[in-house]
Every structure is written in structure tokens, then in C-alpha cells.
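Lab meeting, item 3. Inverse folding demo.
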């Protein structure tokens, strides 16, 4: 059962039964793993969200930590296969003069809440894209990086499903990339937002796949690279 099924009305189900679903586009010939905004401010603690909002106002709590083991599997497999691993951080530096760079802001480079937790930390060889808007493609060098690496597709995990993940997939598709969102590797602070965003992406924008499917894609890309 798809994660969004629980939220569909009877009328919705009849529409879905009557219309043809969007055909998957596939992962692309050469793919990278994109880890979006896995930062402490979005993670918070692994406890009910409402109990920690005074400390982490943007926490996704248990939803975030549930996604971590799936991300760890994908990161391990991608690095072992030599697949490019790209991280994004929503970050503001004081030298920009932007208001959100003040240390008290969750996304300031001077605030520890903007850092990536050790459980999914970057490693040598990984690539970092810094952004100030929801999309990893907007006003960043990600398109140049992908072009340089010869990538035509991305496996996407991270935060948040309805925000930066969705915005990135919309822009990625517009740029001509084959975007594949890994369902278990993404999360949101509101379950409805998570389910609705996945539904929208699956039926309008890009492929929504399982972790097992993503691992298969990583393996196939590894074999293709060796053959080349």
C-alpha cells in the first residue's frame, strides 16, 4: 500500500482507478545520490515533535530519525560503488550580510543547528552544495557539478518531503534530469504533508521508489561504470 492511500477519499480512489498513472521515467544512465538538508535543526531529537519545539523549532523528530537507517544503507552502497554523493545544506554565512546569517538563526553557519548530524555525516570525496532557497538547483552550482560529472539522474533523500525535496525534484525535472525520490529516505514534520508530497511527485513530477529499488539502481550504475 502506498503511503498516501490512507489519505485518499472515496472519490479520489475512483479517480485513481479511472485514470492511467504516470509512467515511471527510470533512474537515468548515470546517477548520483543527493542528500538534501540533513541538518540538526530539521532533525531535532528522536522524541515527539511537540515536546521539543522550544529547542528545535523546525524539528521533524521521529520522522527524521526513522529515515536515517535507510539513508545510511544508501550512503554506504553509493560510496562503495563509486557513485557521486552530493549533500545540500540550507546555510547562510555572515559575509553575505543576509539577516538569516545571524548566529541565532537555525540556518546560520555560526549555529551548530545548521550542521549535519554524525549519523549521516559527509565523508571525504562527497560534494557539498550550499543553498538559500528550497530548491537545490536555484542559484547554486549544482547544474554545473552534474554536468561535470556526466550525471543525468539523481536518487533523492532528505528534508523535507513537501519542501526542499519536492522543490528540488520540480526544478531537476525542468532541467532535464531523471529524479527518483526514495520514499523511506525522506521525511516531513507533518505526516499528511509527507504523503501528499510523495503523491504529487509520483503522479506529476518524478519517480517515487523504495530503498530496495534504489539499492538496485546503485548496483546497476556500478556495473555500468566498470563496463565503461
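The presenter then showed the designed sequence:
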Amino acid at each position: 500500500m502506498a503511503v498516501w492511500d490512507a489519505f485518499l477519499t472515496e472519490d479520489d480512489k475512483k479517480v485513481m482507478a479511472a485514470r492511467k498513472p504516470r509512467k515511471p521515467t527510470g533512474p537515468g544512465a548515470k546517477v548520483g545520490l543527493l542528500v538534501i538538508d540533513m541538518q540538526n535543526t530539521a532533525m531535532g531529537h528522536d522524541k515527539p515533535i511537540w515536546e521539543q519545539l522550544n529547542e528545535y523549532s523546525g524539528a521533524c523528530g521521529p520522522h527524521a530519525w526513522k529515515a536515517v537507517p535507510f539513508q545510511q544503507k544508501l550512503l554506504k552502497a553509493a560510496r562503495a560503488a563509486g557513485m557521486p554523493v552530493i549533500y545540500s545544506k540550507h546555510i547562510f554565512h555572515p559575509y553575505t550580510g543576509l539577516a538569516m546569517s545571524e548566529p541565532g538563526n537555525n540556518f546560520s553557519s555560526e549555529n551548530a543547528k545548521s550542521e549535519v548530524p554524525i549519523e549521516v555525516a559527509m565523508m571525504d570525496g562527497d560534494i557539498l552544495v550550499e543553498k538559500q532557497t528550497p530548491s537545490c538547483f536555484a542559484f547554486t552550482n549544482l547544474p554545473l557539478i552534474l554536468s561535470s560529472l556526466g550525471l543525468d539522474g539523481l536518487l533523492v533523500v532528505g528534508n523535507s518531503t513537501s519542501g526542499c525535496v519536492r522543490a528540488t525534484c520540480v526544478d531537476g525535472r525542468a532541467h532535464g534530469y531523471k529524479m527518483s525520490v526514495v520514499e523511506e529516505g525522506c521525511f516531513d514534520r507533518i505526516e499528511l504533508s509527507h504523503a501528499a508530497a510523495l503523491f504529487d511527485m509520483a503522479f506529476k513530477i518524478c519517480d517515487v521508489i523504495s530503498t530496495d529499488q534504489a539499492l538496485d539502481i546503485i548496483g546497476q550504475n556500478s556495473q555500468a561504470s566498470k563496463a565503461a
